[in-house]
Amino acid sequence: MYPEKLTYDKGYERSAHLYDFFDTKKNVEFFCHYGSQAGEIIDIGAGTGRIAIPMAKRGIRVFCVEPSPAMRREFQNKLAPDPAMSKNMRLCGGDATSFDLGRTFPAALLSGCFDHFLDDNERLSALCNINRHLEPDGKLVFDLFLGLMRNAPLSPAGEVTVGDIEYRRFHGSKTLRGRKMEVVLIFERLLRGVVVERIEERSQVGIIGRKEVQKLLKESGFEIEREFGDYDFSPYREGDSLLIIEAQKRSQ
Ligand SMILES: C[S@@+](CC[C@H](N)C(=O)[O-])C[C@H]1O[C@@H](n2cnc3c(N)ncnc32)[C@H](O)[C@@H]1O
């Protein structure tokens, strides 16, 4: 149903097994709030199920769309020990711009995914596709990082120890033409202090401002209800680098 793009690589294919070690954003409760309100939700760019699995454990039905084969594999591995969890969950391949679940839902979320849309065409196609998957007055909630436009040399971005293995991550970025940025992530695995493996991931992210996102939401049939600057529901303040938008599908 969802043909695998053999060329898919947005910077997760070699490091998906390390994803959960380093994504420690405290946003699971935030997104669960919307899932609980709606009872069922689409999680687009669901990754390893970091948010979807806790939702399903609370009895929320979660329909996940994830284009990366490696991230889906990690997700499936986490589901394997508890087959009962799968009854509240569906995971399929697909892209935000073109997935087709064949029905509508009361809510949708994107966590850490919107930044992957590289231009307004892609953003608008994704938002329109999500809109057509929502019931009248359905909710969309998503986060994005503003003010990413800066070159940054490779520098430490987290370390985790598991038994006698240590993992280190380094992050760097470079601005590209056309309001895009290249992001480089290096992961090192160390055994008793010696680097035994090094993984490099390169990806691109799109740069966008708040006003432009607001315009795209309007064009794709959404009304903004609330804007937050953090996952504790605090209101967005000018200059905040995290923007979280709660929007509603406009009635026709
Ligand atoms: C930063 S990760 C976040 C994963 C998960 N949502 C979380 O918060 O743990 C971004 C995810 O978005 C996915 N992604 C990237 N481009 C996408 C697209 N065009 N459509 C849907 N998902 C996409 C990636 O494969 C990746 O799994």
Layout: helices, strands, pairs:
Elements: H1 19-22, H2 28-38, E1 40-44, H3 52-57, E2 61-65, H4 69-79, E3 89-92, E4 105-110, H5 120-132, E5 134-145, E6 152-162, E7 165-176, E8 180-191, E9 194-206, H6 210-219, E10 222-228, E11 242-249
Parallel strand pairs: 1-2, 1-4, 2-3, 4-5
Antiparallel strand pairs: 5-11, 6-7, 7-8, 8-9, 10-11
Bound molecules: S-adenosylmethionine (SAM).
Structural summary, described in words:
With 252 residues, the protein is α/β, with parallel strands linked by helices. The protein folds into two domains: 16-146 and 209-249, 3-Layer(aba) Sandwich (Rossmann fold), CATH 3.40.50.150; 152-206. It is 22% helix and 38% strand. The chain is built from six helices and eleven strands. It has helices at residues 19-22, 28-38, 52-57, 69-79, 120-132, 210-219, and strands at 40-44, 61-65, 89-92, 105-110, 134-145, 152-162, 165-176, 180-191, 194-206, 222-228, 242-249. The strands form two sheets. It has a seven-stranded mixed β-sheet with strand order 3-2-1-4-5-11-10, with helices on both faces. A four-stranded antiparallel β-sheet has the order 6-7-8-9, with no helix packed on it. The longest helix is centred in the middle third of the chain and has 13 residues, at 120-132. The radius of gyration is 18 Å and the shape is globular. It starts with 18 loop residues before the first helix and ends with a strand. It binds S-adenosylmethionine.
